[in-house]
Amino acid sequence: MKKFAFIVMLHFIATLTYADTIVLKNGKKLDVEGTWEKDGKIMCVMYGSVVGIPKEDVLRVIHTEENNDNFTPQNKIEYKSYKKKKYTTQSSSRKTVLSRKGERETIESNCERKWGTNYRMVRYCIEKQTSAKSAVSYSPSNVIKSNCERKWGTDYRMVKYCIEKQTNAKSAVSYSPGNEIKSRCERKWGTDYRMVKYCIEKQTNAKSAVLNYPSTIIKSRCERKWGTDYRMVKYCIEK
Questions:
Q1: Same domain, residue pair 8 and 67
Q2: DSSP 8-state code for residue 57
Q3: pLDDT, tens digit, 9 for 90 and up, residues 154-185
Q4: Is residue 44 within 8 Å of 35, Cβ to Cβ?
Q5: Whole domain around residue 57: which residue ranges?
Q6: Where a domain ends, among 153, 173, 193?
Q7: Count of domains in the chain?
Q8: Which residues pair with 49 in a beta bridge?
Q9: Is the distance from CB of 182 to CB of 176 less than 8 angstroms?
């Protein structure tokens, strides 16, 4: 009878399959039938019952990724949902790491191609480009940033410089008076705010010069030909 009971016990132990091992901070190890996270706890199945262990008491969880029939349907849903979320997070993190690694390699390649065996300049270039890239990543996503990135690609120092100059120019343009000069310049140069600003300044100066010219047939002819393009009116009168 005792022998039979011993054999039954061995069979029972052999049929137990443990999906994970929870290692507690006090050194104890718990062999459990699958784990997942919920409400700040490590949830698990122990001897057919669902148990929650506070995360702060857990050192780590060793996964063997083994399914178990003792999971209730709800436990399985929670477990699968947790595993999917964990996998997605890990996959996303890996893609981010690989992306950053690729960007780092691009910076190094660009600097080495530019400076060759001048290693002091290669190192300086890498440091400056990396710092500029970080600054660019924190700048707001807008048409200025898109234009600068499209123009300068992986030359992050120039992207950063471009964003700063275009942003300052846009601010200056916004304070310029709304008139035919501003409208013409915006229509011509669109979202290239440095050129819009330059255009407004040159056209305004030219208009001032044209107004100071005496009224003559030449002036009338040039104004009729070039309208509000005061730079061309001024050029026409002078020539």
A1: yes
A2: G
A3: 999 999 999 999 999 999 999 988 899 999 99
A4: yes
A5: 2-71
A6: 173
A7: 3
A8: 46
A9: yes
